[in-house]
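Problem: given the chain below (98 residues), write out its structure.
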Amino acid sequence: MPAVDDEVVALRLQPDRAIDRGRFPPPPATRNRRSMLHVENAVDGLLLAGRHGAAPGQIYLVTDARPYSTREIYDWIRDALGRRAIRWSVPVWGFRAL
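Solution.
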C-alpha cells in the first residue's frame, strides 16, 4: 500500500489549515458547484424526517438554497482567516493534476 503524504491528507480533510498556511493554491473559476448546509438546517431536516411517517428507509438531500463554486468557498475561507483576496488562480489543467 502506498504511503499517504500528510500534506495531501491536510489538503483534503482540512482545507482551511492548508489555505491559511499557503499550501492550497487558489482554484480556477469553473462551472463546478458545491452544496453547503448550515448545522441548523441539518437539524431541521433531521427533525422533519423524524416526524414524517414515510421517511424511514428513504434518502434525502438537504442543501442550502443555492450551489456555490469551489473558488467562492476558497475566497470565503481566506476572508474568514483574515487573509487578503488572491486575484490569480491555478490553470484548470494544473488544478486537475493536483
